[in-house]
Amino acid sequence: MATGKNPLFDTATTLGKILLFLGVSAICGVLVAGLLVPAAAVSGSAASGSIQFFDTLPAELKVDPPSQSTTILASDGSVIANLYAENRTRVSLDQMSPYIKDAIIAIEDNRFYEHGGVDTTGILRALVSTARGQKQGASTITQQYVNNVINSSLEAEGKGDEVLLNGVNKGVGDKLREMKLAIALEKKFTKEQILEGYLNIVFFNRDAYGIEAASKFFFSTTAKDLTLPQAALLAGVVNSPSFYDPIANPDNAKVRRDLVLKAMLTQGKIKQADYDAAVATPVETKVTQPRQGCAYSQTAPYFCDYVLHLLLNNPAYGADAAERERKIFRGGLTIKTTLDPHAQAVAQSQVDASAGANPDKWGASLVSVQPGSGKIISMAQNTVWFPADGKFDQTQNFNVDSQDAKGNDLNGLGGFQPGSTMKPFTFAEWLNEGKSMSTLLNGAVRRYPQNFPWKNTCPAPTVGWYDATNGTHDLQNAEEGYYKYMSVLDGLANSINTITFATAAQVDLCGIQKIVDAVGIHGGLPSTDNPNPQVPMTTLGNLIGSTQTAPLTMASAFATFANDGKYCEPIAIDSVTDATGAQLPAQTPNCRDAINPDVAHGVAYAMQEVLNRGSGALIVPRISTKTTFPIAAKTGTNDSNSSTWVAGYTSGLATATWFGDPLGNQQRAGQNVTINGKFYRGIDGYMIAGPQFSNYMAQVAPAYGTNPFPAPPSNLLNAPAPVAPPRATIPTTQSTDPATAPAADPTTAPTLAPAPAPTKSSKK
Question: Which parts of the sequence are annotated with region: Disordered (predicted)?
Fold first, then answer.
């Protein structure tokens, strides 16, 4: 018969566990004694050494606001996008359901309102449980809050590899430090402040930090509206967010939820009927997946990305890129932008209608700004950020310069050849020199050789020539019927290349350069020495738009004509506030005198005629200053028809629309192509970019003002000077006899009949 063992001496049970308990206590450095009694009352070198070590630990904890989501807003306060490193929205304790407060205390720290940061009773209980072979935590909510604050600070500083996790890389010294900081924290903050801080910082899921984000993620609700079973479930998740994940592990989540509910019942926080109903409730989630970043914006992803790059490149938000990124993605900023959601919706519908889904990946874009402020009102393009069936996916912004993002992360495509949208600036210099727009010039001159006597007072030399006898070709128009005498006004209205060159031949090319620079036109890639590269107007091809320019640049330049000659830099950010409500640097209007007001009024007069009877009269649906409201515009098309434009304005809104090839080197010809089921022998500015412009302006411009443009002075309108001869004898293809020239009076010039699609160099 086997001899029975005395339980008192059963080393496998009682004695062994007592020894284990004593070992754990020793490892903790007699921590409990150190917390319970003064150091002088404790005997033993181990205890004294532990307490001395405890006394040397820091007692101050810098409680910075935890990482919070940044929100980008439209001008009306609607959300464009959220940006975050950790999805968190801070809410006050009174904006949380009483159930979540009771549930988290019941399961995590039921003596929360009794201890001073460290629960010695809980520590002893945990040691006994450990001695019995049962794992039980002893960290109070205050200690957990301290741990989360420390880890949050490490993450914000880019030191995520130093984050301390219970039971993984936290040593006895770390635990002691945590306890001392918890005690100090309890002396500094109220219990309510600590509980609020904890519930706002604690991790629930990789897509949900803090109770508000967790409520939205798991249940599509707010922390304030959490039900009892929902609150109990979330309170249970924090113990092990992966193991108790109600999406991946609903059975585990239910067991833990019901344990929380039992604790709440036992502690008198809920009644039996509430408990019974809650445990009978199945675990059901209603997930709202967070959409972090501009790419997920439903209204304006590319504008949002433009705003983001403006901030990431702004030294006011940090000394270096890493600091600025932390500020933006963790700082809980509220960024209110200039974007008009209504105008943006109209813009998006127009570019999508032009080429929303096309297998050949033709691009369409539209951007508008407000004259007098430079505020960007809309910015749209016909692409999607992520690949999708039947969609053109593109991450680069068609509307902005490449230099809007520095370094290798270029968010802007860098622009397109603007074609004849550059012609108004040569026309402006003609007026600026006091010349009448009614002056007749010889549009039959097609040859400008290397030795042509251009006037150019700029240091930069004049570059280029048109001469079929010397390695290039003679200057061409889109249609054969315009190699003849006509007024400077008619030349601009009908977008005649030879008249533009005849105009430039009578003015200082440097004057054109100064106007182009003054209205903010630039292009090409930036460098340290030249952050805003010029479009050199002493390079002859640029008179008719050979250098790439961004639509936003063109819209802002044309806005100058609407604003009595004052140029305003484009701005996108009205205000920025941080999580405390403090104002951070934003953008304010930055305007300057650029063009003589009389010249601006003269250009407006001429570009109204573009729409009334010139190349813009072919736009369908048509906007005419005579039938709707005062509006001025210019069409543009490059040599290969791969880049087509309309840029124009009312008194209150300037818009540039573009359609063409955005791929690679942009050399794909827009000729003999089918777009949206329609065949084009050659795409011209009025054909696709034109309807984008007219439909958009008809719907949006009235809200921003459509006042009549001031009339230019009579000397710029009438009293034409005698026909000016060319400066050199240049071979022409048609008669140069002024007697055969058409009437110069712009009020009696005939309306053009629809012209055939161009087959030669158009630049219209």
Answer: 715-764
